[in-house]
Design a protein that fits this description.
With 311 residues, this protein is of the alpha/beta class. The protein has helices at residues 21-32, 87-90, 124-128, 161-171, 188-194, 212-228, 250-262, 279-289, 291-296, 300-310, and strands at residues 7-12, 36-39, 48-52, 72-75, 106-109, 112-113, 133-134, 147-150, 174-177, 203-205, 239-244, 266-271. Helix 5 packs across helix 6 (212-228).
Length: 311
């Protein structure tokens, strides 16, 4: 007996600007079973509607709940940390046709999940565990696209990271490590492997005041690997994200910025919960993240004094 066709509606609660990987996998799985899948609209009747969001209500509040569906399924970290896709859906090749502009010649996906760091501002360790583990090979979400957006939270903490870096290198695609590279996990061996991967811009993070020496050491090893491979960055150097306004003082923020600058990398200030950030942190972000301002006045104290005098 043939199964009846299921009519499926999809709702990306966050937006359509950044592809929702869960919805792309759900779409692919349903289409492989002969179901009809489309973006939800209020003039159709659906057997099932999937609502997916990454961010919490503070950033992505639900505007409505569809009344034209027999079943509504909500998922994503915005709805909780305990909802996951079934294995057969999780390992489906994404339906990139849902986001034709954002995914033009670009693949999105995870090779690893989990992170051992358990940072207070990040939900990864709560959702995915405190161990970085391999969850896929590159072929699961990449089929010759020119660009790869890698979503892994901490690739280098995975025991199989050398094998996975080699897959990225062999792809010949230009890779964006969207969540950054954990400099504390850099060794001479994996640094040499990383510099063989095609990238547009490498970025790292120095999110906490502790462990500055370990981060600096990793950045220095990576810079040395670039030198030995004769691949010193052209134009602007790699960025290092510096998280502020999360249990740090201005002095601690400046210490990390100076540490990044001391190894020739470029700090990029991120503000946690910007609405509560003091003015000095907002000024620091504007100064550090704008190359024109920074190079015109590399001393933040002088920059801020001059900015205050101009008010």
């Amino acid at each position: 007996m043939e199964e009846s066709v299921v009519r499926v509606g999809l709702i990306d609660v966050d937006s359509h600007n950044w592809p929702n990987l869960c919805l792309m996998k759900l779409s692919a799985w349903h289409k492989s079973h002969g179901d009809v899948v489309e973006w939800w609209n209020g003039f159709e009747r659906y057997d099932r509607v999937y609502m997916s969001k990454v961010f919490t209500d503070e950033y992505s509040a639900d505007e409505f709940e569809p009344a034209n569906a027999e079943e509504i399924i909500k998922g994503g970290t915005g709805y909780g940390l305990d909802n996951v896709l079934p294995d057969e859906v999780e390992h489906s090749y994404p339906d990139y046709s849902l986001y034709p502009e954002a995914t033009r010649n670009t693949a999105y996906g995870f090779l690893t999940r989990g992170c051992p760091r358990a940072c207070g501002f990040c939900i990864v360790s709560q959702k995915e565990g405190r161990r970085s583990r391999k969850v896929a090979d590159l072929s699961e979400f990449w089929r010759g696209q020119k660009y790869i957006k890698l979503l892994d939270p901490n690739l280098l903490a995975c025991p199989q990271h050398m094998e996975l870096i080699e897959q990225l290198t062999k792809s010949g695609a230009r890779v964006d490590f969207t969540q950054g590279i954990d400099a504390r996990c850099i060794t001479r061996e994996n640094a040499e492997a990383l510099v063989r991967v095609k990238t547009q811009m490498m970025h790292f993070a120095m999110d906490r005041p502790g462990g500055i020496a370990a981060v600096k050491r990793g950045l220095e090893i990576y810079a040395d690997a670039l030198d030995r491979a004769e691949k010193k960055w052209r134009g602007r150097p790699p960025k290092v994200y510096v998280l502020t306004n999360f249990e740090t003082s201005h002095e601690q923020d400046m210490e990390r910025i100076h540490a990044v600058q001391s190894v020739g990398f470029e700090p990029y200030v991120m503000i946690y919960n910007k609405s509560t950030a003091p003015q000095i942190t907002r000024d620091l972000q504007r100064w550090a993240n704008n190359p024109i301002i920074y190079h015109a006045q590399p001393d933040f104290k002088k920059y801020r004094r001059r900015a205050c005098e101009a008010i």
